[in-house]
Each structure stands twice: as structure tokens, then as C-alpha cells.
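Appendix B. Extra example for self-study. Work through it before the problem class; the solution is given directly after the inputs so you can check yourself.
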Amino acid sequence: MSLFWERVALSLYSLGLIVALALLWRRHAERAFLISRRLMVAGFIFQFVSVVEMGVAAGHFPITQYSEAANLLALMLTGAFLLVYRVYSPRGLSLLLLPLVFLLTFTSIYGPAGAAHTPLLHAGPGIDNVWIYWHVTLSFLGIVGLTLAVACAMLYLWAERSLKQHPANLGWRLPPLETLDRLTYVSLLSGFPLLTIGLLIGFYRAGLQWGRAGLSDPKIVLALMTWGLYLILLFGRWAAHWRGRRAAWFTIVCFLAAVATWMASSFSRLHDFVR
Amino acid sequence: MNPNPAPIRPDAAPEPALVVYGLSHHTAAVDVRERAAPLDADPARGTARLAEAPGVEGALLLSTCNRLEIWLAGQPDAGQLAALLPCAAGHAIEIAAEHFYEYRGRAAVRHIFRVCASLDSRWVGEPQILGQVKQAYQASHRAGLMHPELESALQRAFSVAKRLRGDPELVGASASLGHAAVDLAGGIFGSLRDKTVLLLGAGKMGQLAARYLRRQGARRLLIANRTRERAQALARELEGESLGWDEILRRTAEADIVLACAQADGYVLDRARMAAVLHARRQRPVLLLDLSVPRILDPAIHSLENAFLYNVDDLRVELDRHREQRQRAAARAEIQTEEEVDKYLRRLHSRDLTPTLRALQAKAEDLRQRELQRLRARLGGLTPEQEQALDDLTQGLMRKWLHAPLAGLRQAAADGQSAGLIEMAERLFDLTPEATKADEAIHDVES
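Solution. C-alpha cells for the complete assembly:
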């Protein structure tokens, strides 16, 4: 399978990251945001081509290998960022998301399972793989919502700290606290139903395949834990009016749980990528 | 900066008969100024009372939060001046004499120019003062108190002020507080569009900041002041809502921005109360700016999550940036004002001289015509060429002869030394009205 288009996307993301960091170092924040955003747009186009190419080459929705999953997640993340940018134009968000997109694309190409090509799912007899595709796609979209939320939460903590400590000399302006808080909430709200449906499909599919044994799998346990934390966070925001710093820290905890779930693939016996 | 330093160039010329008398924020603290404030805010009533005072030819009463002044035409003595202020204010003013100042002649013109150009204001460059002077000017007109000498100085001062207001740094600096508030609000809320501002204290500083915030789009304005009437007046002007001082705690939860510019014993809002306010607001963030000295918002509020409290020192960077601009602009404006005062006084002197110059020219022309007439009678019929030659000759002689005295008089006027010379010229050239009449009589007899 050719990784040419994905490599082009990776080059654009790398270039964006290097130029943006250099510009930020020289205190040209505005240009850093602009360049990182434009290179993300260009990278998004080539990454989309590479995802389509991967799917065509594999003959199925490209999520069975780590390389495919990471590539798809990076694409979704960039797409979601561009969508959010059109509505809220949050300055600085691209700088937080670009390293993550870069990391996902990089590990997709040079990662541990990049070379395997076995087109196989752990499907039992008579079980349609479509469930898996929906499970992964919706869960990924949920995770994208959470990732956007955590990027906004981190920006919030940064901006809040600046406002508390150096009120009149922010150097360069971060997005307003209210915008960041609202954007965090909107991202969480959008991600939660998708993640919930994705996980429900996953549980149903796991039940079909492994029965009760699947429930003790570390990846599934961690996924449940992440979902529980996510639910507490949303409930806290909705009912107890958690805002600002507290909500931002809780979002980060949720995201760390999601990262742990993602990493759990490497030590999960049942729920692993195809190697 | 000393509000009225000594004139750049001591002037030997007789000065305009103008006097400024009063007190301002430079010489009197707010409690002193409050004791001197007129009974009613309407400048027309104070001016009307002034019109009834004996011996006042022309006067203007300027009463603002920061000053109470009378601008007078004429040369009243100190006793008369001291009696005029209580008369205008409508009550006895028991304030030590050290709080009052008095400017006469050139210093008075300079003060009027500086006040109109907002160089004498507490917030240099603030735009309200010119409007207040114009209001006082209209009140003075209506009361029949506008003397030509005072009017001429005022018209010039208005035009200079208008020109100086073109300097964006001078005008922009006036909004520095409001600007700092909007800057910080930008970091927290982004836009002020749907925000409510609570103003504690409707003094000048608060008014300026509130106006700026309103212009920047703040949706609602709640104004609390110890004197409810002042809060109501500002609320009317800015389409806000006035609150009593005792309503502050109850209504703070509605405010996204709290702007404190008032005097109070102790904290109006402490940490515990602010925590309750935040709870009532469901933790929506609040920006609090405490510009009062001493502070009236508990500094511990800043440690609360979602409460961002800044005092004047915290805004130092922002204000300093504007202060530098303001100082630069004010220095430029001071120089221009001095030049304008000089120019105005020169014009005033040349205007005094104009009748003398005209009279001298008219007298010379009259003399020439009479001599020509006499010559024609003696010589009989002259050809047109001879007539023309005679005319040219006499005109040339007159021009050359008058050139030196006219130029000398003009130069003396420009140097501000015309008054003595005018009298001298009138005597030397016999230009008094009586002399002119006598000349005409002789002419009639001769013809």
C-alpha cells in the first residue's frame, strides 16, 4: 500500500509545526496561527486522499490496523478543527491540535503496526463487520469532540492564568475565556452522544463475539471508565454549573482516560488492531 | 504639571480686561468643591443670579464636577470677585481663600484657552469640558451677560480647542480607563454586546469610563451613587438604570463588569459576598475594576475562581501606555495654546490700532484732495495729462511719507506695544474726533 499521500500530509503538518514554532519564538503569533491553519487545510486534503486510498487498497473501511485508525483519527481531528474554526475562530487552537495531528499521522506511517496488511477482523461467523465500522467511526468522532474540548480547556487554563497574573500584558491575545469555555462545552456535548452510541454498538458487538468474557478486557473497562467520567463532567457542567478552571481540569482528566483507552490496544488480548 | 505657569514672554502691553476667578481640582479636593457647588446643576440659574449682581458687565459661570469659575469682563477688585461666587452659587461659600485662584489679562486668556482645550482638566483631553463651556456661554448670552471682549476670547478659544481636539493621541488618551476596561473585558468576554456593567460612583472618572463602555456596546448599565440624583442624571444620559447605594449587593449578581470609582468606608464588596454573587451567577465570570483610592472592593476577591479583580496599579501598564501618549500630546497642545494666546493678543492689539491707521490714511487723503482742489483753482484748466501727473505725484508723496509711521505702528501693535503709540499718533497727527471736526469746518470755510 502506498503511503505517498499520507507522507505529503505529514510533510505539510511538519512544516506547519516548525514554521509556527519558529514564528512563535520570534513573537509573530498572528503569522504563526495563520501558517499553521493554512498548512492544516492543505494537509487535510492530502490526508483525505490517503484515507480513501487506504480504504480502496484494503477493500474495506480503513480502521482495522493502527496505521489506518490513526490516519482516520488525524483526518477527523483536522476536519473538526476546520469546522470549529469557521464558527468560532479561536486563535491559538491550531497550535495545540497540530502537534497531535502530526503525532497521529507520524505514528500511522512509522508506528508499530504500519507494515501489516492482513485484512481481517476478529469477526465471528455470521457477524457483520458493519457494526465494527460504526463502532469505530462514532467512537472516534466522540473522541474528536473530547480532544477539541481538551485543547480548548488547556487554552482556557493558559488564558486564565495570564489574566490572573499579568492582566495588562498578555503578549499575544488568547481567545476570550467565555468563548473557550463555551467551545469546550459545545465540543463535549457534541462528542458525548456519538461516543455513547459508538460504545453501545461496541458492547453489543463484543457481546456477540466474546460474551461476558469481553467485559473484563482492559480496553473495554477503560472505555467504560472514560465514558463514566465524561458523563460526570457533563452532569457537573449542566447541574452543578461547573465552569472555568474546575471544568477545564476535569476535561483534561477525561481526555487522559481516553488516551489510556486508546493505548490499551497494545495490551488488550481481545481488542487489538490487526498485526 | 503646574496648571498655569508664568507666561513664556512677559508682556509689557496693556492686557485684555478679563478676569478668571474660582477653584478647581488643582486647588480644592472634592469635599471642598462639593461645598462650593451651586444650588442647582442648571448653569442658567447661576448665571441669572450673577446678572443681578451690581457692576457686572460681562460674565460667564462655569460649574462642573471639577471646577467652579467665573470669567469676567472688566477690572473688578478682589472684594467684588469674592462676593460674586456666593452670589452665583446661591449660598454662602465658607472655604479658605487658599483654594481660590485669580487670573487677569493674559493669564486669564491663557486659562480660558487651556480650559476649553481640556488641558486643565483632570483627565487631559476629556471631551466634555468644551460642551460645558459652550453651555455656560449660551446661558451667559441668554442672561445678557456676554461682553464683546469676553466673547472674542471665547470664540478664539473654541476654535483653538476644536483644532487641538484633532490630535487623536490627546482625545484617545481621555478614554484610557475605559480602554483598559474594554481591553480586559475583551480577554474575558470577547465582546461587550450582551454584557451588563455596574458602575459604583458616578463621578467624573466613572462617567468617562461608563460612556466609553457604552459606546463599545455594553448592553446594560447599572449606576449606583451615594447621591441618587447624580446616578439618575447619568442613567438618563446613557440610558442606564440608577440604583441606590443600598441596592448594590442585591444587584451585583446581574453585572458582568463592576467598575468601582467611589469613596467608601471599608469594602463595599468582600470575598464572602462575592463568592455568594458568583454562586448566584452560576459561576459566570465577572470582571471587577477597582479604581477607587482607597479601594472599595476586597482584593481577596481576585483569588476566587471566575472573579477577575484589578485595581489602578494592575492597570498601570495599560494606563502608562496612554499616559505617555497623553503627555506627548498635552505638551504639543500646551505649546500650540501658548502660540494661540500670543496670536490672539496680537490680533487684539492690531484691532485696537485699526481705527487710528484708517483715520491717519483718511486724513492724509483728505489733505491731498483739498490741496489738489486749491491748486486747480489757482492754475485754471489743466489738460487730462497734467491732472494725471499731479494726481500721481501727490499720491506718491503721501504713500512714501505715510509708509514709515504706518509700518512703525503696525510693528508696535504686533509687539504688543500699541496702546501708548496710538495715543501718541493721535496727538501727533491730530486725529482726535474734535480735531477732525475742526478740520472739516476749516475746509467748509475755505471752500
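Self-check: Residues 1-114 of chain A form one domain. If your reasoning did not lead you there, revisit section 3.
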